[in-house]
Amino acid sequence: MSVSQVSEDRSIIERTFSVLEAFNFQDRSLTVSDISQRACLPVATTYRIVTKLVSWGALERIEGSRYSIGLRLWEIALLAPRHSALRAVAMPYMLQLHARAGVSVTLAVRDELEGIWLEGVWTSEARCRGAVGNRFPLHATAAGRVLLAHASPETQEELYTRNLHAYTRWTQNDPLVLRAIVEQVKISGYAICDRELSESVCSVATPIFDGDGAVIAAIGQVTETENGDAAQRAELVLATAKLISERFAALHSAEYGKKRRRSRQQAPL
Amino acid sequence: MSVSQVSEDRSIIERTFSVLEAFNFQDRSLTVSDISQRACLPVATTYRIVTKLVSWGALERIEGSRYSIGLRLWEIALLAPRHSALRAVAMPYMLQLHARAGVSVTLAVRDELEGIWLEGVWTSEARCRGAVGNRFPLHATAAGRVLLAHASPETQEELYTRNLHAYTRWTQNDPLVLRAIVEQVKISGYAICDRELSESVCSVATPIFDGDGAVIAAIGQVTETENGDAAQRAELVLATAKLISERFAALHSAEYGKKRRRSRQQAPL
């Protein structure tokens, strides 16, 4: 295979994904012209890629001239183990916690220096809309601090050196203070974040472990105000996290754990 | 652009998706050699595509030599409007129905001649595992019959001419009888399917409409046995479907409905 062909291949796959990346939570349906602009591709090239993506099902034509992400892509993407395996185990426990505590319950994982809401059982439709799949800052959420507390020292340091945004007047974005808070999360086993991402949100979160004792996710409770009971609520969340961790380990140790012991560094789940 | 380049482009995008299609619910982690065999691609080509997919996040290396679908693909795929818009509206109502009736609640859409479970609130973990995203036969499920009843006459006829599988001794797969059942579903507004997909499953389902009165999904209740109360349960499901339909229409008429009126034939949601 010639060098030019390799280079051309790379370019085509990258262009294809740049078409998919043109879509986001705000703009779920786009015209070819919209996509062309966002992906920085000529209209003809965009049209050609879009046509192929439609024929495979990665895009759907939702009306004459607009396109959206297709259900076929969603079907394949559900196979992401970080989503499907964890969701299947966690969901029944999340529903129980939701029913028992009457508050929103969330499940999150870390991707580099951000968190991603993997699943949620929300008390209101407003919160539910678009929340699953959204990214959130690690420093200003309880789930984020849990995930940060169990990240590598290098990842922690990388975050602390960033200019951390203050979302409200309560947001703790001083690296020194944050470092101390995160250390405490590791000791106490849970994190509390009160009005730091939004004035009307208080969250409590705890880690979920795999069979090797590695933190793979955070489960959290979200309420509108603190009410002074966050530490009490943390106990309920901790108990739920324990059940999920045990169940996940029982089901997936054979599948993931043993293999991962061999190459932990290469492959954080 | 030369014809050969167009052909080569097409080939690369298709090969890329054949790599993604190598994964399924049974095999969520594969080696390059596994993928190469399933996608019918040379190992070197497979390795090259896999490397690019990893760098974009469509695949993740979950250990030294195994790969799985990546969270970045899942993130983009969540933007599929058939999933996200409907899920956001339906989920709180599904949770209410689940809490009130104490049974599993499912949300499904049709893709050609199959159904896809879009969302589920399951009473047990066993049912939850892998269910969302799975496909199911239209003729042997309540949700499937609802979706079939509101499909085009051409789609219905295409299904009836197929050799329909009998999953249990109760499965109705005689085209003539099935046609009559499906007509009845359209009149009564709900479908019941008792032990036809599995001996231990009885389901009741009703349609969810968009603001234009088109059926966009089916919501169902799943229980282990019939108990003679399926028609009663249908009322509760109908009431829930009505709430979801109204809410969906209120939120998305502006976004989808008006545009779709212009080109309904091209773009069933």
From TrEMBL, chains A, B:
MF GO annotations: DNA binding; DNA-binding transcription factor activity
InterPro entries in UniProt: GAF-like_dom_sf (IPR029016), HTH_MetabolicPath_Reg (IPR050707), Tscrpt_reg_IclR_C (IPR014757), Tscrpt_reg_IclR_N (IPR005471), WH-like_DNA-bd_sf (IPR036388), WH_DNA-bd_sf (IPR036390)
Keyword Transcription: yes
Start and end residues of each HTH iclR-type domain: 10-71
Superkingdom field: Bacteria
Ranges for domain IclR-ED: 72-250
Assigned keywords, A-Z: DNA-binding, Transcription, Transcription regulation
SMART domains for the chain: HTH_ICLR (SM00346)
GO BP terms, alphabetized: negative regulation of DNA-templated transcription
PANTHER family attached to this UniProt entry: HELIX-TURN-HELIX TRANSCRIPTIONAL REGULATOR, ICLR FAMILY, HTH-TYPE TRANSCRIPTIONAL REPRESSOR ALLR
Designated name of the protein: IclR family transcriptional regulator
The species this protein was found in: Streptomyces dysideae
